[in-house]
Amino acid sequence: MPDPDSTIYDFGIIGAGPSGATAATLLADHFSIFQLDRRPLRSGKHPKARTKPCGGLLTADAQKILTSMGRGIPKHVLVDDQLLIVKIIDFDNQQENDFAGTLFNCDRELFDRWLVSLIPPSVDLRTETIFEGLTKEADGLYHIKFKENKQTKIVKAKKIIGADGAASRVKFRQFKTAPKLPKYIGIEEWFEMPDGNFPAFTIIFDSSITDYYAWLIPKDEFLIVGAALPSDTNTKERFGALKQKLIQHHYPIEKLVKKEGHPILRPRQKEHLFTGDNEIALVGEAAGYICPAFADGYTYALGSGKALANAILQNPKNFQSIYQKNLQPLTKSIRLKNFKMPIWYNVGIRKHIVKLTAVKISK
Ligand SMILES: Cc1cc2nc3c(=O)[nH]c(=O)nc-3n(C[C@H](O)[C@H](O)[C@H](O)COP(=O)(O)OP(=O)(O)OC[C@H]3O[C@@H](n4cnc5c(N)ncnc54)[C@H](O)[C@@H]3O)c2cc1C
Asked: What domains are there in the chain, each with its CATH number?
């Protein structure tokens, strides 16, 4: 085992996705921070780079959180098709309806790189670096083990922030009794879309494929076909069945460009949310914070990153209770979304509500 680096950081942040980047940016002026992420979040975009599979849709709530931090959304992170229509295809009830949308359609990698570009240079941020583990040693410090440029290294930090997403290694290695949430696999396949005119974020309900939902999202010259499928089922066959149905309905899915997949959590009860303790805090999806109705995670990642940073700034030693208080609006929003779930996921109720609330689009 290599000797640890002699620097002692106040915080070690594992992950620089939206939650980790937000926390680092807000804490950087007050604490010494070491942060790592396995993605090449600072270099130019290249085709073989590890990316985070994601629809890249920014809801009105996520936009509000950015506004509350004094941020606008730079043009270069947006794709050409901005989506003013949300279409619902309900294969269970054989219905199609349109709604007005307020989503920003982003390039996920560029969005994440933009957030990372806001992290002040005082943060010792290592990208393309893999987190391997964490131990609390006799010196009372956390020793973070990671691999950078094929070399195993160790740095020391007083406290840890686990911002490493749905499959959080920090959570499951450090908290043996951490709650296990209903787990889905988000699969996305990108298809070439030659004529480019597909102006809707399309939500697909089909209970023979998933008890969650599937989606279509245009991204410049591509169309993403995605689905959140229960991870303990035959996900490949179910995704194949979804594509067959779309082909039968004349959706342009012919030339496959890329495939990706990533776990998605679905917090169904209060106990699924778990934010760690006063030494190791969890944030974003690692803490279970994501919308259980439509898997919108940006809102909860940005919001919990901000909630945690403000709590630490108020009381760096004893921040958990303040963090949980700061999280209340997001916690309540998850509870409310669970309460309203039958509107979307009970086939009979959905049939009537969707028809009643849809907007007419004259063409
Ligand atoms: C298919 C799919 C589509 C989605 N679409 C949307 C959408 O359109 N809109 C929306 O709002 N949300 C969407 N989500 C949810 C959203 O992507 C997440 O909830 C959100 O990114 C969570 O942010 P986070 O910072 O908590 O975690 P992540 O964004 O997952 O960031 C975690 C970071 O930790 C790093 N990391 C993890 N493990 C290690 C390790 N061992 N070593 C080094 N680095 C590590 C990862 O590289 C990553 O950068 C989607 C999710 C999926 C899977």
From this structure: 8-353 (3.50.50.60)
Atom nearest to 39 CA in ligand 1: 47
Give the long-range contacts of residues 38-42, CB within 8 A, separation 24 or more: 38/127, 38/128, 38/129, 38/130, 38/131, 39/112, 39/127, 39/128, 40/127, 40/128, 41/16, 41/112, 41/113, 41/116, 41/127, 42/113, 42/116, 42/117, 42/125, 42/127
Is residue 152 within a helix (H) or strand (E), and if so which, with residue range? Answer: strand 151-162
Q: Which atom of ligand 1 is nearest to the CA of 53?
A: 1
> Is any ligand 1 atom within 6 A of the Cβ of residue 290?
yes
Q: Which residues pair with 34 in a beta bridge?
A: 12, 124
- State in Å, rounded, how far the first CA of the chain is from the last one: 67
Residues of the chain with pLDDT under 70: 44-50, 196-197, 359-363
Read off the pLDDT of residues 247-274 as tens digits, 9 standing for 90 and up: 998 887 889 999 999 999 999 999 999 9
For residues 95 and 238, what is the distance between their CA atoms, to the nearest angstrom? Answer: 21
How far is it, in rounded angstroms, from Cα 158 to Cα 136?
Answer: 9
Q: Is the dihedral of CA 325, 58, 109, 234 positive or negative?
A: positive
Say if pTM beats, i.e. exceeds, 0.85.
yes
Q: Is 21 in the pocket of ligand 1 (CB under 6 A)?
A: no
CA-CA distance, 4 to 155, in Å (whole number)? 5
Beta bridge partners, 242, equal none
| Contact 109 CB / ligand 1 (< 6 Å) | no
Residue 171: both structure tokens together: 């959570």
164: Cβ below 6 Å to ligand 1?
yes
